[in-house]
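Tutorial handout. Part one gives the primary structure; part two gives the three-dimensional structure as tokens.
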Amino acid sequence: MISFSPGWKPFSYPAPDNYASPEAREAFVRDLQSLALYDPNRAVTSSRNGQIIERDLIDLTDEEFERLLKILGNYCAGASATKA
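Part two.
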């Protein structure tokens, strides 16, 4: 779904097989867009895996970082629960 480099750069992985459904992928992208971590003008279907996200994690405010953790928790918790 998303990975982070040691230099605080996030990379997105929008391939459909990384998500439970197309709707889940679209919702995750919308959540990233709410933090300006995904370009709202870029179609998720045209993005490639490993593409650098526009904003570094270090640029997030404390509140935005907390929101990102909640977003990741929502998707990662659901994924691990369904695969277990």
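Part three, for discussion. Residues 2 and 12 are 5 Å apart (CA to CA). The longest strand covers residues 2-4.
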